[in-house]
Amino acid sequence: MPRTINRRRSRQKNSPALKFSRRFFRILSGFKRRFVSLGNLFVLSKKRKKQPIPIAALLFLFGIFLLLFPTIFKNFINRPSAIISKLSSAVQMSAKTDLAKEPIHIDTKLLAGKEAAEAPLRIVIPMLSIDLSIVEARVVDGYWEISQNSASHGVGSAYPGELGNTVIFAHAREGLFLPLKDIKKDQLVYVLTKDRWFRYKVDEIKFVDPQQVEVIAPTSDETLTLYTCSGFLDNKRLIVTSKPDRP
Question: How many structural domains compose the chain?
Fold first, then answer.
């Protein structure tokens, strides 16, 4: 009887259905292990994403920011002034190399019969704190040359005390004719020569285009004309006309 039972059990163990079921459960358990491994990886990745940035890394980045901040801030602040400085230099270079853009055209016939003994040497405007030396502006291709560090007297225009138009001009820069924009009518202007001084009173102030050179043309009476740049990028000319103020 026991032998019969053992035979039956041996047949059941070796039956195709039992072998198939065992193999099927092995495959299922293999898939289960793989899915569990993938699930664990997904959970670990989510946990890693939630981990905060280490404090040491934050301190390191903050230290770099502190080191670079002064340079960045200085460049940011100086940027507008650097741009303005470049524009100013470009305008000054243009005026120096291309006199036709700042026309002070003269009639060459006016160059005859002038003596340099009474040429103006200094101009003083007390109310504007202007006190400048004056040099003679030589003629270059029919235009008066402009001094870069003083006022200029246009050769061919009248000398102080003579009948005619005495033209004195300078750049609208600090230390030159920049304060001229604040001049008022009836303020006094003094022009000094080698042996004498002449006093003028402001009569008219106006703005013209660079092409309006008639403002420096000869006049029939004694006149002092001060001439400088004005407006955005020096696109205008400030003309101050004065008459003798004798006691």
Answer: 2
Q: How far is CA 95 from CA 169, 217, 246, in A?
A: 13, 21, 36
Please tell me the distance from the alpha carbon of residue 201 to that of residue 236, in angstroms, as a whole number: 23
Beta bridge partners of 107: none
Question: 158 and 42 share a domain?
Answer: no
Q: List, for the chain, all residue ranges whose pLDDT scores fall below the cut of 50.
A: 5, 44, 49-50, 76-101, 109, 116
Q: Is residue 59 part of a domain?
A: no
144-154 pLDDT, tens digit per residue, is: 999 999 999 99
Cut 0.90: pTM above it: no
Rounded Cα–Cα distance for residues 247 and 236 (Å)? 35
